[in-house]
Amino acid sequence: MKKILTSILSSAILCHTFAQTEFTMNMMEHVFQSTYVNPASKPDHKVSIGIPGLSSVYFGYALTPFLPSETFTKVGSENRFDLLKVRDLLNKENLMYFGGSSDLFHVRFKCRNTFLSFSGRSVVDNYLGLPASLGDILTLSNVTKVDANSYKNKTWDLSGLDANLTAYNEFAFGISTFRKKFGYAIRLKYLQGLANATIESTNSTVAFNDDLQLQAQGNLVMNTSSPAKDTSLNVPDNYQAQDAIFNFKNMGFGADIGFSYFFNTKLTFSLAVNNLGFINWRTNPISFESSASTRFDGIDVVNPLINGEKVNTDLNQQLKLKKSIKDSYTSYLIPTLYFTTKYNFTPRFLVSGTIQAQKFNVVRIGLSAGAQLKLSRVFSLTGNIMYQYRAFNFGGGFVFKPGPIQFYLAIDHMPSQIFQFQKNGGTEAVVPDIKQFNMRFGINLVFGREQVPQAQPLNY
User: For residues 19 and 59, what is the distance between their CA atoms, to the nearest angstrom?
Assistant: First the structure.
């Protein structure tokens, strides 16, 4: 267990992870994709059409407890990964998230005072929660029997070790309507599950037993649904991508809800709750469950990868988990809430403040303050400063619309510096030295500017 957790942790730090909390895009209401953050965003155009595969590409990462550079030690001229530093930096609740999304299509059009939309996108959402005690366990590799005696009465709590790894397609119908003082929106989503793995730990602890062997107790449950039909989780050789595309066994539903209050022509308050939903997994559902007391010898992942060998991923054999075949199981999306205030000083210039909250194990809060300047009919700039995961950073974006073609880019947590380290084999690599990064970019087709007399010359 310790070896596979070490591999996951080091890979996440070096390769980074993705995070789905967007502040900059929330301010860019003239882009359809802003409705992914706030469904009640008020459009600037009557019609928006997404170019398949190009209208939106999203990726980013989050690593809450530390910066990548903080986990390395300088040895001569090289930076080497240091688990002892990781142990010291892990706090009570740690989150790693990696994923991304790509739009398949979207169409939005206005009908009287109501906007209707149809959209589809592919999404990968991977959440990993790590308890602080995990750092102690990961640094026990060289404990001798003499050392272990000093640990006899020590117990490490692993109850915060949880994961939710999901890939799915989303097909949605959205409706938003705007009156003089209020705006309402809802997006109803059909979810086509592609693959999933969840880990839940309850009252899980690790300690040395009387024989000085590392012993795990409590309840650890892992559910998986994938093309693999056995405990090795290896995908069959004859598996084709279309097998997943046309697999509708894993069915789920979700909703995004938005509300806007127009206090006057300048001040707007908005509230959005996204990713309320679930997926019921029926494709090869397998459950692995630990017994009341289990000795973990570990899974060696790093060395086989370095030596070009095949990793033994038979969980039933390696982790000594009890395997059972289920009819189905259910996983849930990770809900996110945004509360936003916007104030238009002029038709050209607005400022905005956002409070964001996301629930995975615990509620995590993010804050943002930003401004948007519309320079002309075809170009606007957005910038903001944000505080999230105990770190300040900057974000920004632009919209460029020559004719009906709309190009846009939105970035949260812009990297201000990079960190260089030496990988196994002596090759050099660099990564952005920040805790979180988000980027969304794409191309839409938009038609028919909304008739807003005061701002009409500046609409996009």
Answer: 7
Q: Which residues contact 82 (CB under 8 A, 6 or more apart)?
A: 71, 72, 73
CA-based nearest residue to 250, from 211, 307, 193, 171: 193
- Predicted structure pTM score: 0.80
**In order along the chain (460 residues), what is the average pLDDT of each group of 10 residues?**
45 43 89 94 92 89 78 74 77 80 94 93 88 73 61 74 90 94 95 90 73 70 77 56 75 96 93 95 86 51 46 50 80 93 93 91 88 90 89 90 94 74 58 79 91 48
Phi/psi of residue 75, nearest 5 degrees: -125, 105
Cα–Cα separations (whole angstroms), residue 312 to 4, 80, 150, 288, 429: 11, 26, 33, 16, 27
3-state secondary structure 284-316: CCEEEECCCEEECCCCCCHHHHHHCCCCCCCHH
Domain boundaries, the chain: 2-458
Q: Are 39 and 272 in contact (CB under 8 A)?
A: yes
Classify residue 282 by burial, with Cβ atoms within 10 Å: 0-12, 13-18, 19+: middle
Q: Among positive and negative, which fits the CA dihedral 110, 111, 115, 116? A: negative
What CATH number does the domain located at 2-458 have? Answer: 2.40.160.40
Lookup: tokens for 256: 């995004």
Q: What are phi and psi of 442, to 5 degrees?
A: 170, -175
